[in-house]
Amino acid sequence: MQIIAETNRLILKVLENSDIEAMKLFWGDSEVMEQCLGATPHELLHKIQEGYAKCHEVTGISVYAVVEKESGTVIGGAGFNVKDINEPVELIYHFAKKAWGKGYATEAAAACIDYAKKHPKVKKIFASADPNNTGSLKILERIGFDYMGMKWFDDTNQEEPYYEMIIK
Question: Is residue 132 in a domain?
Answer without folding.
Answer: no
